Records
---
Amino acid sequence: MVGKNKLRRELPLHILIIPGVILVFIFHYIPMFGIMMAFQKFVPAKGFWNSDWVGLDNFRYIFNMPNIWNVMWNTVYIAVMKIAANLVVPIVFALLLNEVRKNSFKRTIQTIIYFPHFLSWVILGGVLIDVLSPTSGIINQFLGIFGIDPIYFLGNAKWFPYTLVITNTWKEFGYNTIVYLAALTAIDPTLYEAAVVDGAGRWKQTWHITLPGILPIVTLMTVLSLGNVLNAGFDQVFNLYSPSVYSTGDVIDTMVYRIGMVEAQFSVSAAIGLFKSVISFVLVVISNKLANKYAGYRVF
Amino acid sequence: MLNRTKSEKVFAIFNYLILSFAAFACLLPLLNVLAISFSSSAAAAAGYVKLWPVDFTLASYKYALGKSEFIRSFWVSVRRVMMGYAVNMIMTISVAYPLSKEKDTFRARNVYAWFFIITMMFSGGLIPTFMTVKSLGLLDSLWALVLPGAVPIFNVILLMNFFRGIPKEIEEAAYIDGATHWTTLFRIYLPLSLPSLATISLFVLVGHWNGWFDGMIYMNRPRNWPLQTYLRTILISPDVTNYQTSSEELAGMRQVSERTFKAAQVFLAAAPILAVYPFLQKYFMKGLVVGSVKG
Amino acid sequence: MKNAIKRFSTLALVIMIVLSLTACGQNGKTPTVEPTTAPTAGADSDDLLAKYDPAIDMTAWRFLNNGIQFAEGDDIENNVWIDYYREVFGINLTYDWVVPEEQYEQKMNIAVASGDLPDLMWLNNKNLIDLAENDLLYDLTELYETRTSDFTKSILEQDITSFNTAKIGGKLMAIPHTGSAIDSLQILYIRTDWLENLNLEMPTTMQELLAVAEAFTNDDPDQNGQDDTYGLGLTKNFIKDNHFGATGFFAGYHGYVRRWIDDGNGGVVYGSIQPEIKEGLLELQRMYAEGQIDPEFGVKDRNKVQEAIASGKLGIMYGGMSTPGAILKFNVVNDPNAKWEAIELVSIDNETAMPITKMPVTRYYGVNKNFKHPEAIMKLVEAGSAGYARDNKDTADEWQDKLSHVDGIAVWQYQVIGYEPAKKNLIAHHNVVEALETGDTSNLNLEEQGYYDRIKLYEAGDREHYGDAHIFGTPSSFDIIDRYVQSEDYLYDKFYGSPTATMVERNATLQAMEEEVFTNIIMGAPIDTFDKFVEDWKNLGGDDITKELNEWYKSSK
């Protein structure tokens, strides 16, 4: 009896979700036959069914590249820093905005910091060379006030990864703040009222109400962004890097791009893609488990 | 307001300063690009343009806007955004709602959840996706720009998590009153989720409006190109095609004075999004300070 | 909404079909269904240009050239060339797809992979070879022999080596889009008003050039009282860039960076690892250390270095024939006093410095093996050469005026099969210069007339047309190209064709290494790193590539 009732209660849920399942099946699962490209020597003129099978050759090729481990390290190093910065900075700014009482000020600031998201890296490449120039750049002139020697942000291999992280954070933090702002609105206002009655100050309110209130979304964004641990951001790196910073700035995606410039190599890209997929899948699954265990929050 | 402590006042001042500084840092490069878009190509090429146009001209805008292709592809984009928005929102909600249920109310939930999550990480790649779209006969149809991304998984997971934050007591009370899933979704979940729906709306709108790659791949005829795809064909100064040659050497010339055009493109392309922004912002900024102004 | 529901039900149906297709493991290539057409007039006619009656259909794909423009109401499927093909040849040309130029390779690869090919396709070298090897292309050898006019042949075969790249196993599998190799020879540009300011002579040797670079850096050539000028302009991609590249500089030391050159024993060697390059790098290193090269060149692309030219901070650059229009123009527009002159490359010793060029074919016109009217292609090939004929001004029909430029729009870009005589631009230069001297424009074709008209505008004071005057007029970049051609003092990259197996595998790594090492040396790394680079290059696959290329070289002779 209970079972039947339950089924009846569940049926609408199935009906709701089925159209989405079908669409995802068609446009995501059916094309997955393309993954076999990673195990072929794919030639467009031969197509999927006539290209030669090469087993794991494409993976061997990638991991036998002379500088692969250096590139891999660069990728992870840059990506991890970006992940961290893209989590922390937007949260901090959402909290700071949250403290502003003047609504018009808050809105203006929020709108402005959201702008840079719309500038492409091609455009920013030109702007950043000027801004970050060691001789005439505004940033170095500013640092000069404090007696700091000019820094060659884009041309010095030591600095380049940090330049990537900082500029990327600058471009995206406003956009990423929006999610947390939405999460802040969901916090029950009566909690603050109760806290004020108890005599809690702003700092205590933030610590005990605001932060726990947005923790689920923070956890979610953390788990999801861990899937990007091998994505250092092709567009940005490609538009900002140069031969003098290859040693620290060359990442998997730019390397694959250059391989493709000699001759389009679908199978190598597919193999890299599959490798990245597996890694990010594993990381997302593990972090989901860990989040459940330690933060008590299941993301999926 | 009266019971602000001294440290809170100091913090407030610093807060205003930090935020103003951040906004300033975001605004400057933007003003620079804006100034370039209104400058002559020679001035822009020399790097003379800082925050104010040099040799003010509307040439870049006139060139882009003066073509019927611009209007045509603009409408393709508008239609794409409207269709894509409708489909994406319906799909996001209809998938996120069942997934937001716990396993004891919806037993198949985890199977469905992983079914979707896997597609965030694994993809068959461009060629097989193209072949699928083609075999469905969707090439040169707006559906080709809408259906392959009909279920934006990231947004689904985001909304699902927001749905979960809605207090269970409200739903249980409604259930006892005999509410169906349908009424729960429409009377409780959606009205309580306006901020997150506005956020997702923004992501969806920006995604569809800025999308150019799928337009290039799935639209075989230029008349079906959305704006962003079309803009990629005209970012060039009009005078260079006077040279009648297609040799590689002269082809290099064609990239020359694109800087002012590229700058103008940023604003032409972003303007509609910036125009709807305040309407969405209203929702995810609402009620932020409810707790603090009292007391 | 009704439509949407219909779409969805169709979708559901089609899923089944797709599923069964995938499950069966068919190859996804739907056999091209050809309309059964009755034998048509024109197909067997001896007249090359005979019209099909009734008209035949032809499908094709192509990219849209950068900056292509259309008159109001026209587009790529509806324009004067489409009309021309239909009215004159009875060919209804439609496009399966078109894409912006940058995305062409990708879309072509997708289209080739997904399996249905149009009747006529634009191809790159790689896909040409693959499609030919998989027997998907029509062998044009015989058609070309029998159905091409001598005039057209003379244009296509002006550069026979590049024409032959369309032959696979001795068979002509496509019509190559031939272009000009001499157009990409390196040229040296010097700012002459600066020379005058400093009372310097135009350099004729590398030693003199280096002295000028030093003076341009230190002696305030623009006389503004500030130390704000550089000698030589380089981009971060100086190894491969044309404008602001170093190829011309290294050629002054008889080194050829990233080119394959004669080893003197009938074989080929890689230019970048030769001792001459080391010498050139050492000199660049010194110039960099002395502030003659922008300390930030290592991060600047062409657009950024161009700023230095346009704002009058730079007085020497290596470029190509289009540099006056692409780069120098902005300087001249901004500064009425600025004057530039193009000169031949200068040499460090008594041996002439030779610029180096490479095979100019960039695309091929291939024909589907299943196309019922392959001979129709030859009519389009003929149509492609018509504009170059000079003697037909009187015989030209109503179409000729409409196929090149109409109201300032370059409609010639709409043609589906086009190619260029190797010396087209050089000849245009000769004709324009002659017409400027005599005032007689009767010998100019439409394209040349355009250059002529704009040069007249320039002479009347419109500096926007500086490029036309200093590319096609005189003194100009083509004066220099002309001298190279007259004296035959230029080289070809010995390697053309598609990359060898080891190149495919290793070149990306090797080239990145080369760029990194060379940049670092210029910026002050010890010159010994060059020797280490040569070792590494050889060990990491360079030796294998050299071996493969020598085999190829011997077989291609």
Note: Confidence is low (pLDDT under 50) at residues 16-43 of chain C.
---
Amino acid sequence: MREAALKESANEVRRMRKWKLSQIIGFVILLLVTITMLSPVWFMVTTSLKTTKEMLVFPPTLIPKVFAWGNFSELFTNTDIKFGQQYRNSLIVSIFTVIGTIISSSFVAFGFARYQARSSSFLFMLVLSTLMLPYPAIMIPQFLLFMNLGLHDSLLPLILPSFFGSAYMIFLLKQFFSTLPDELYNAGRIDGCSEFRLYWNLTLPLAGPALATVAIFSFIWSWNDLLTPVLYLDSQENFTLPVGMAAMLSSKFRLAPWNLLMAASILSVLPIMLLFAVAQKRFVEGIVLTGIK
Amino acid sequence: MNKKWMSITVSLVLVFTLLATACSNKEKNSGGSTAKEGGKGEQVTITHYTIDSPDRTFVEKLIPDFEAKHPNIKVKVTKAPYEQFDSKLQSSIAAKNAPDVTSHWGYGGFMEYYNKEMLLDLTPYLDGFSGSDYNIPEDVMNIYKVDGKTYGIPLNSYVTVMLYNKDLFDKAGLSYPPTDYEDKSWTFDKMVEYAQKMTVDSKNLEEAQYGVDFGFGERDQRPQYFGAHVYSDDTWSNGGKPSEINLTKLEVVDAYKTIYGLIYDKKISPTPAFSQTVSGQYGDPFLSGKIGMSVVGSWSLAAAADFSFNVGVAAVPYNPNGDVRSVLYVDPLFVLKDSKHPKEAMEWIKYLITTEIQEKSIELSGGNPPVNQAAAEKYYNNFEGIEPKGIQQVFDGAYKYGFESYNHLISNYSQINELFINELAGVENGDKQVENVLPDIEKKLKDLLARVNK
């Protein structure tokens, strides 16, 4: 009996050892993958702290010999770059785009999810079909429209379209709204809710994860968009970050200031990282619940 | 809770409306020409559209002086990053919001603009204008003439030069190459011989270094150095539309074999993989200090002060078979067809090519080569550590043995260039042989030309 117990506990120890070994291998693999994934970030950070001369050295130094912290302040003091102003413009555009997308897309998605009209599926297909239109196809007509409205060279052409719904976000939100039970709405109606309050007080508070997903996606798309601002913005004081950063690479006649560009990249990913950190839990839930990645 | 959300939304909408009105009330006629009644006669605004990089946007610093001298003209500079230059220009033209003055600073070239009828014939506005008044050589002025009509006024003239890494030359115990184009002892074979002495062809990137990077013009122009011509001669007289393609002719095939042989037979030139590793996708591997000699556009000189090694400039070697030793890149200024103020636009262009402004531009741009030869002296003195006399000799020789870049002369060049880049990638990576690829390119190029030059 005792022997059997001892044997069992020895087996246990062996299993634990075995498990530990596999755990170690797992850790090593994960560590390697992490290093591989983080190495571009490492190069971004180190390059941002290098002097122009050190930036050109090959093989590249892993840690800068002299830490050129001045690269970061140069972004804000160099009058040719105007980084601060571009940052502010990008924030204005992205924040209002998020607000516009959330308000308009959730409204339309609520309609599609909750009301069954005879042609609603046809209309929904029509909305989805706009996903197939590439931006270059609508670029010139939209440009003409905003020119005629006198909005050219302002931030409005970058923000306004988001207030008219985004097919992708409508689809995403409709998927989520459709999962909410009818009983909930019936209960609301019995308690005297108007249709708008069903949307505002019932649907939106329950749709946190989906709304977080929409917010993150629309923020990232708007934050990274280069072509639209290039087309609409003429004055440097209106430029957004991607336009300014692409301009740093523009000159074939001189060295690209990679160190400044990397410093700018670090600062430009901060809002996205912040947004993701705040909304991460809901974002993941949103992806799981809506089945959209 | 509900009230709170409602009030947040209402406030946001209000703020947004305020912002919207604030933004849209700005100057509405932001692009293209505008005119408004001034106190004394009409004041007009012309738009100068350029790449958003310091060596181009420096013109903004010249505007106050110009406007003081021309009180009835205001100049507005609009800009776009290099990659988006063409898309912004095309959409502005489509929206009838075209700039007045610009150049072919994107992917497209002069002939492409000309054939798309984007350019204004400047001849009626050239009353009393002569290139010689601005010290522009006659043949340079002629580059942008078609059927006797002037469509562009030259602004900067870049040439092809050879840059060399003095440190690698010293290490290999080699004497520096000459700056004199008449020195016929400096031949292509001699360059190869020098390159062989400097090359360390190794898989270890730290040890590897190569003798020469032969970046003479774009891929379709490179055979010209060897006396072989990809396009028939009528291309240069009929609006940049070649009637024949000679890619399968023996001398063209041999020229390409020699060029790519530098990488894979002689192993003295870097592979694209090596170049990308040491300098990124669009970078110049010469900057890494691991290339002995680089045949390259003279714009690379502007960065000379930032190199981490000593650099020299030399003549592109003599080749007994060819008489073209330098690709010239003369950047002009155009007035676009939709301009409402071509006369004022011409005033701005004339201002930019005066000796005083061309000299000032060298300094402000960081080293743009002036087309006005009276300002050239200042340009030659602009590069720290490089003998001005040497640069002058190289430029003189390059003009004498130069040929204008194909991308300025051939119609629909961006598509042609893309075809060459894509199709020759296999050869450049060492996967395919020149003789197998060229017939394919010839066929595709003929199809392309038949389609675009209809």
Note: The radius of gyration of chain A is 26 Å.
---
Amino acid sequence: MSEDAQEQTHGEEAVVEHGAEAAHGTEAAHGADAAHGAEGGLQIHPMDQFIVEPLFGDGPISFYTITNVTLWMMLAIVGVFVLMVLGSRGRAIVPSRAQSVAELTYGFIRKMVEDVAGKDALAFFPYIMTLFLFIVMANFLGLIPTSFTTTSHIAVTAVLAMAVFLTVTVVGFVKNGAGFLGLFWVSSAPLPLRPILAIIELISYFVRPVSHSIRLAGNVMAGHAVIKVFAGFAGVLGVGAIAPVVAITAVYGLEVLVAFIQAYVFTILTCVYLRDALHPSH
Amino acid sequence: MAVDATEGAASAPGMPQLDFSTFPNQIFWLVITIVVIYLILSRVALPRIGAVLAERQGTITNDIAAAEDLKRQAAAAEEAYNKALADARAEAQAIAAETRAEIMADLADATAKADAEISAKAAESAARIDEIRAGALEAVDAVARDTAAEIVATLAPTASDDASIAAAVTARVKG
């Protein structure tokens, strides 16, 4: 990391700390030295698991550097490949177990696209399937202890959400022309209210990618951080560690749920936005 | 107990998510990942699974049609069986009736013949009885006549002739 970058990020610490503290509800941060003081002090670094670092060497991270992000994204690709390609390799009329899973996933998302966004949205089915499979795969890979969770990074989810936002906006205008603006003009409301509603609708439209991305990254990050905090407690409590271990187990179970639900939510919201683009009338 | 969110010098700052220096790296690899997954899905996985599902649907539809066909055939076979059964039963009844009629006819025939034979025999017997009876009466007549003639000859040897005796006997026997 370059000097400048370090400066810049250290400048943000103050802000970030508040966020982190709010997340695990513990008291004030010590100095950097206290954290490094090896023995004695309780050492919890719940955010260390999210650090992006080069896999080989120690140099600065340029955009093509092979990092843990690269590793876990490639593993997500492998996971998707195993699930969807190797799983369906048999092409059996009576499916094997792996093929059943692949078919269920296919049917699940296809039905979602069809039901939520409509039949004409099926052209986007591979795209939505890609989003869903990447997120669900990354979420579940992130649940492996000591792994790196790519979807906990706002940079990743923001790109996914922006891609959806741009796609939806472009599709909306291409399919409906200026009629797409009817999305903001609530024709069922009384006329005097319409301009106000239009402003609200407009704001909510532009907030979509923000909530869309932060919902996913925030949920994943918070859960992982909480687990890490409990793990830190377990490290110093001795016999009493049973309590945090039970808590970790519970939170882990919850995280398994969250891993799927957040992928599902991201996907279904994509479908909802797509429906708005294809059928903008209220 | 203190939670240290700041980390040491070796660690990244508070929230690695906001370390903008890693953004290009993450975005670069994300785009590659998404493109690769998209290609895998749209080129290989989704068409294949879609084809398998369509094929299965087709197979199921065909099987259901075949099953319905077989069911119809089974119903037809059952109907034919029932019809054959009814036919056979009717035929059996016809044969039984015919046989019964034949037997009845034979029986009637035989009875008539036997009746005729019996009545012939009876007539013959009656004739013979009549004959015997006539013979007996004749014999009684003759004996009475002879006896009367003897008696007359004994009691009055000079009395009347045979003819008057016979007339008298006949009159007496009849009376």
Note: Residues 20 and 127 of chain B are 153 Å apart (CA to CA).
